[in-house]
Design brief:
It is built from 18 helices and 6 strands. By secondary structure, the protein is mainly α. A hairpin with a 6-residue loop joins strand 1 and strand 2. The termini are far apart. Bound molecules: acetyl coenzyme *A. The site of acetyl coenzyme *A has 18 residues, from helix 17.
Length: about 425
């Protein structure tokens, strides 16, 4: 923060107002406009929050022009190469890297809270068999609020931490069970001797009738995907969690709202949309170029899913890292038939889009969802589970951002204003006279 100010002159009245100019540790300076309405009687208008910082935060730094992403100051590249998802969770929620003992204790704490209350199991069976697992997840996570009254004083930092641990621990179980229910398969309970990702794969794929050993390669790749998705500052779902939580709503309800926002194909739902698009391309029998041309046609609503990003106007650093794994996995793994064809189409599309002037000019690079969808496909993860895994990874970011908001003594309920464009002062006409 600094003592700099920006002067705004109202040309219509000649009135001047000096507004504080805030300096972040890095990134664009930010005009504090909170006094603008009081001083000049104006609102500001910024649909989609293109130029608006909705809060101050010390969790994640992102530079979309340079393609930089850091959690608590640590570059994503270093965390991806040297850390683990649970260590990143510790870092995000505690604002420091753990000592060996702290990490062991944290892993023990998370591992030992992965079970769900038995009564919660019945919530799953209330859904139709063909329910999307994201719909189940929204419902079940929201329902957690009915189970943990004991630690729901949101103004108590210790309670907030317990809630964070509970959510991180239980999310893989909820995610896997959402899938198992839709498949009509028995729920598999968590196994404490397994790592976070092995345990998730075990709950997804093992059967009580057969021994199952999670593939360490897949567990490792999944761990990396979770690291890359752990937080991403004030994106749509995180802003939703903050807004819902700003009314002092319970954290499970706020996170359920975040899951709902993540589901949309313009956000976390894009990884599923990518694969659906690849299937559409293959099934159509039309050339790849014809789809690229459609994406460029302003009269056609079709977009290349998995390309472009609101903030990254350079290569998304997560996409850079995940791309390497994606190509590695595709080389190492035996993919056959339909799956192989989809993967080939994806790689051809990546090439076309990276070389086509339309995409190059607009900085429309493949984003993290483009590659995560392909990796999930190569891993044999069902399509409707892609966004669920994203939600599982992002839970730590949501809950950390929520806790940061509440720990700020000055936090207020989020209440945007509007530019009203409807009719005014109409005269009510009784129904018989209309
Ligand atoms: N295919 C074709 N053209 C595109 C695409 C795309 N995927 N994305 C953007 N454009 C074009 C737009 O038509 C626009 O062109 P114009 O300047 O000629 O009008 C220009 O690029 C800028 O696009 P905007 O829509 O203004 O960018 P915005 O920041 O609003 O949208 C978004 C970003 C929503 C991610 C968009 O790129 C998109 O819809 N991508 C596909 C969906 C997707 O992959 N979402 C995942 C995002 S990553 C995440 O959530 C983890």
């Amino acid at each position: 923060m600094s003592d700099e100010t920006v002067t705004i002159i109202d040309d219509t009245t000649g009135k001047k107002v000096q507004l504080p100019l805030l300096s972040p540790t890095r990134g664009p300076k930010t005009i504090d406009i909170s006094a603008l309405y009081k001083e000049l009687g104006y609102f500001t208008f910024d649909p989609g929050f293109v130029s608006t910082a909705s809060c101050a935060s010390s969790i994640t730094f992102l530079d979309g022009e340079k393609g930089v992403l850091q959690y608590r100051g640590y570059p994503i590249e270093q965390l991806a190469a040297q850390s683990s998802y649970l260590e990143v969770c510790f870092l995000l929620i505690n604002d420091k890297l753990p000592s060996r003992q702290e990490l062991d204790d944290f892993e023990y704490e998370i591992t030992n809270h992965t079970m769900l209350h038995e009564a919660l199991k019945r919530f799953f069976s209330g859904f139709r068999r063909d329910a999307h697992p994201m719909a189940i997840m929204v419902g079940v996570v929201g329902a957690l609020g009915a189970f943990y009254h004991d630690h729901m004083d949101i103004h108590n930092p210790e309670h907030r931490m317990i809630t964070a641990h509970r959510l991180i621990a239980k999310m893989p179980t909820i995610a896997a069970w959402s899938y198992r229910y839709a498949m009509g398969k028995p729920f598999i309970y968590p196994v404490n001797s397994m790592s976070y990702t092995e345990n998730f794969l075990n709950m997804m794929y093992s059967m009580p009738s057969e021994k199952y050993t999670p593939n360490p390669l897949l567990a490792k790749a999944l761990d990396l995907i979770l690291i890359l998705h752990a937080d991403h500052e004030q994106n749509a779902s995180t802003s939703t969690v903050r807004l819902a939580g700003s009314s002092d709503a319970n954290p499970f309800a706020a996170v359920a709202a975040g899951i709902a926002a993540l589901w949309g194909p313009a956000h976390g739902g894009a990884n599923e949309a990518v694969i659906r698009m690849l299937m559409e391309i293959n099934e159509s029998g039309k050339s790849l170029q014809s789809f690229v041309d459609r994406a460029k046609d302003k009269d056609d609503s079709f977009r290349l899913m998995g390309f472009g990003h609101r903030v990254y106007k350079n290569y998304d650093p997560r996409a850079k890292l995940i791309r390497v794994i994606c190509h590695q996995l595709l080389n190492d793994m035996e993919s056959t038939g339909e799956q192989k064809k989809l993967l080939e189409t994806a790689m051809a599309l990546e090439k076309v889009a990276l070389e086509d002037g339309y995409f190059v000019k607009r900085n429309l690079y493949p984003n993290v969802d483009f590659y995560s969808g392909i990796i999930f496909l190569a891993m044999g993860i069902p399509m409707n589970m892609f966004t669920v895994i994203f939600a599982m990874a992002r839970t730590v970011g949501w809950i950390t951002q929520w806790a940061e908001m509440l720990s700020d003594d000055n936090h207020k309920i989020g209440r945007p204003r509007q530019l009203y464009t409807g009719p005014i002062d109409l005269e009510y006409v009784p129904i018989e006279k209309r």
